[in-house]
Amino acid sequence: MIDKQFDKETFKKSVKDNVKFLYRRKLEEATQEQLFQAVSYTVKDVIIDNWLDTQNAYEEQDPKIVYYMSMEFLMGRALGNNLLNLGAYGEVKEALEELGIDINALEDQEPDPALGNGGLGRLAACFLDSLATLGYSAYGCGIRYRYGMFKQEIRDGYQVEVPDAWLEEGYPFELRRPEYAKEVHFGGYVRVEYDQATGQNKFIHEGYQAVKAIPYDMPIVGYENNIVNTLRIWDAAAIEEFGFDSFDKGDYKKAVEQENLAKDIVNVLYPNDNKMSGKELRLKQQYFFVSASIQAAIEKYKKTHNDIKKLHEKVVFQMNDTHPTMAVAELMRLLMDQEGLGWDDAWAVTTKCVAYTNHTIMAEALEKWPIELFSRLLPRVYQIIEEINRRFIIEVQNRYPGNYEKIKKMAIIYDGQVKMAHLAIVAGFSVNGVARLHTEILKNQELKDFYEMMPEKFNNKTNGITQRRFLLHGNQNLAAWITDHIGPDWITDLSQISKLKVYADDEKALQEFMNIKFQNKQRLAKYILEHNGVEVDPHSIFDVQVKRLHEYKRQLLNILHVIYLYNQIKLHPEMEFYPRTFIFGAKASAAYERAKKIIKLINCVADVVNNDPSIGGKIKVVFIENYRVSNAELIFAAADVSEQISTASKEASGTGNMKFMLNGAPTLGTMDGANVEIVEEVGQENAFIFGMSADQIINYENHGGYDPDFIYNTDAEIRQVLMQLINGTFSSDTELFRDIYDSLLNTKNCSRADQYFILGDFRSYAEAQKRVESAYKDEKKWAKMALLNTACSGKFSSDRTIQEYVDDIWHLDKVTVTKSEAAEK
Ligand code: OAK
């Protein structure tokens, strides 16, 4: 609820004032961008009061803090979300209307802070929302990339990457905090000095290059609870301002170097998803934010506590995948070299402070750094890792005497490389996967040796999403309808949404539910017309696959099946066929050639299919440009079918699957990641499951025996589809899709034919698609299915996930914040 100091009139006046003071303009003269800024500053004022109250409450109550360490935070737009969480959206919308301003147009002015690639980064953002809403003290720690995820333009069907200068106009929801700046050191060497007084060696890092880390804080507003947590992202600057000073002193070269180093570190987010980039700069980025964040955490702790050996009682670091794993060695370094602890004490503290989440089993994502690079860039940190490794190998030897295979498989440093996952597991007190199946694969396959040696560390935390962004904000009509039927409790307790189940056979309710879906489909159709110039029929089935483009996610299976359907319709024009709109949205990593070719293929198929009058518009294919959090909200709300078709075992969890479910779209998917748990919640009969199981896939991978050529040779329809890739059907350049064709078969150009079992699952997928069609034709049956998907989505709230992290791993204290009187502010 909006409070007194934030009533409509005050709000309106403040917007007008901001336009005046910021731009020297009257409201009527302001551009949309200026209005966005002015309104955002007004909202930020309110947030700041709550932020201060929160800080005071935390100081009084001294709760344990989780530091969520992540290279990525895919936040999406803040204005609308902040207003909703403040409980002020409705009133602000009205106030703006009275000023002649459309809140939606204003929200569209905001750039999406896209400081992340995909699943891992968006999960971090959902977690921050849940932590604030549940009343836990938390910091997100990351990097303030000057350029976030690139903007995708589609030109002539190809992806073109355009820089995302999200900070260009100034970002209103951040606060620069130079008073908390920290120094981070790279390179140099370590000098060992014997300290007479203590009888200990001292390790002195010298000859390094220093960079200043300057934090920017973004508020994370809890839902109607006065709590505002902080996402702290670090900018880099040279230690000394580059100027005449250094020039005069002859330090010109050094000053330029420092300046460049700083600029480079925070310049750009690496656009890789599920793939490691072995670049030196990436390693610098990792150490940069890890070091600054841990220094800040220790400093904060020491302000009110004097025993560093009890750090773990008030602080926990959660490492979002292995990217921040340097945290282990950096914490050891600070505890020993700065705080004066000996190894054993430092290790005892560290191993109670750090925990690790694994987000993928894709081999190419596993972080391994060459010793040469690592030790050169971070000599002291490397030294500490060597010692951790030395001690760990002794443990392995004691546990498995004479078993050198174990050492080879488990060592942190082996084969000239530092293996970050091994470091995270050895030092972390908790290791978790992100869906039940994924955790089982970690335990029984990928991390088997570690699980055998330290089973107590392993646990599962099935991912979740925030219903506040992906339903309350993204699908406002459905949210209002749900609240009308079951009250508003679902907003902070999604398990309540199961109360909708009583409407599963209520014709009126089902009709209303589907009417809202239809309106959302109209909204998306409008967006597609505006952005793609393609007209789609909102009466057709909206069949959607939006996610990063990766071979394992099998967008290729989807588009090959579209080609197959197209062939069927052309061959049997009389065949009954329910009109379908296949909607894709995906960014490919800039260097991932095959993924980019698949985008081109989708667009080429779209060109042919959408413009072939002989199929009477039965199929449309649309590739939505620049898929990101803001258009995702529209897309989930409008989807009929949720395509979750990864090769079983490869998708650790998926979170898009949960967003579709929440918005009433049944899953068409494999038994992979969290799909397994989705089906468990909603029932087999309300999903469309197909394909090989994870066990079958893993079995083929371990023992061979899969032969896509056999399928090609014996299934004429599949063969036809593949032939069309190289016979000019979709491009006059018959070589354009040769690589894709080759990748599926045992050709001389392909070492692992059809690595992702596309042909193996094709028939099963086509058959599941048939089931989708017949289910959709039965309107009542479909409506019930759709509603039950929403009604059974309760488990997949990130509030549930976070509560599990708190109960099992972090052990945080719950905090309440009461609003101080306006007069005191
Ligand atoms: C990105 C870079 C390196 C390693 C993993 C990722 C990543 O985004 N993984 C994804 O994490 C999501 C959140 O846990 C999961 O839902 C996805 O399945 C997984 O691919």
From TrEMBL:
Which Pfam family, giving just one, matches this sequence?
Phosphorylase
Name the Gene3D superfamilies for this protein: Glycogen Phosphorylase B
Q: Which PROSITE patterns match?
A: PHOSPHORYLASE
Q: Which reaction does it catalyse?
A: [(1->4)-alpha-D-glucosyl](n) + phosphate = [(1->4)-alpha-D-glucosyl](n-1) + alpha-D-glucose 1-phosphate
Matching InterPro entries: Glycg_phsphrylas, Glyco_trans_35, Pyridoxal_P_attach_site
- What's this protein's function? Phosphorylase is an important allosteric enzyme in carbohydrate metabolism. Enzymes from different sources differ in their regulatory mechanisms and in their natural substrates. However, all known phosphorylases share catalytic and structural properties.
The cofactors named for this UniProt entry are: pyridoxal 5'-phosphate
Bilayer-crossing regions: none
Q: Name residues in a coiled coil.
A: none
EC assignment: the record states: 2.4.1.1
Q: What is this protein called?
A: Alpha-1,4 glucan phosphorylase
**Enzymatic class:** transferase
* Family assignment from sequence similarity: Belongs to the glycogen phosphorylase family.
Superkingdom of this protein's organism: Bacteria
Q: Which organism is it from?
A: Blautia faecis
What keywords are annotated for this sequence in UniProt? Answer: Carbohydrate metabolism, Glycosyltransferase, Pyridoxal phosphate, Transferase
